[in-house]
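Support request, please re-run this one:
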Amino acid sequence: MKRAALVASAMLLAACGTVDANDAQRSDDVTGNLPATGAEATARPDRAPVETSPPNARGQQPAFAGQTRAPAAEATEVEVTAVVDGLASAWALEFLPDGRMLVTEKAGTMRILPAGGGRGIEVTGVPEVDARGQGGLLDVALSPGFAEDRLIYFSFSEPREGGNGTTLARARLSEQGGTVALENVEILFRQMPTWRSTKHYGSRIVFTPDDKLFLVLGERSDPRPRVQAQQLDSHLGKVIRLNLDGTVPDDNPFVGRDDARPEIWSYGHRNLQSATLDGQGRLWTVEHGPRGGDELNRPEPGKNYGWPVITYGIDYSGKPIGEGITAREGMEQPVYYWDPVIAPSGMAYYDADLFPEWRGNMLIGGLASQGLVRLILDGDRVTGEERIDLGHRIRDVKVGPDGAVYAVTDRSGGQILRVAPSRS
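Re-run finished. Output below.
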């Protein structure tokens, strides 16, 4: 079977940067008349799971059937083409309306690349970033009204007095005479408190149909700040929800409470680097666990997702996290979890036509698993999983205008890979 035959077809970009240390400590860190999809098309409960390695946390058990190690889905034959090469630790990809690609690189560079591959243009006016460790220029997303307002939103690890933190900004993308610049850069949100750390910035931006946005945030990793994932007066380890201008929506769950930051939507998260909406407009996220315990969640307003009080997996030292428990009253269970980890980054809901059997599936980038992880959903439960080996750490995943899936590899010399059905 032809799973991932790389066809090198891209031009080298003149780009340089440092190797991304993200998760370096973990070698593992619809409705309508549609064809049969998802659970109907490819779930096979009689199949063994794709994960066969023993879990790190040997004594832990899932809370319900199918919460981990779902049956293997029918394997997909794909053809993988490198459409861009030579990127320097790329972090995020967004397609412009004309098919060109807007890409961020960790060291602080933003580029516009031709739709068919090529040298590209560097975007000037990007704010200073703290690119140490897992930091740098992170996610980028087009305004819902980009065709008229030319606004882009982007997140980055901002150097600050006393440390750094995840910051959300927007700016106008101005193109004139073959040059591209960010104009009128406006800071919309700063994660607080500022902390001295180079880890767990989180950072995916998701727009909603009701003109709101979600920004997902990490808890900065270290034992001292990680407990703030449970504190409502801190942004660490949270999903936040904002109006497009950065103000707080009146219907956020903690508005009006003196002991809580009003931007918070949900809490008790670890390091979220994957987020998207499903076909019903609902938010889904995947967060990094420690050694084991990567979690798929559907965050709901005001709910507590447990970190670091409950978690699947163990600490990097091999010891339990906290009390070593996986459940507690008042804390939500993940929809699905992985142990060993996939090290998730980037996520897309597939609703295109090129892969009809993938309609309604979630596609997640894997840093440790070095490829795409496809999840088949039946309602809010995972019924099947496929691993598509791409041979690279995958930092971001997008569905392109042509229905193909585009996967961004990280590290120096990174690529954008186009994943399409095999023609053989």
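Helices lie at 38-42, 146-149, 223-226. The CA atoms of residues 137 and 156 lie 4 Å apart.
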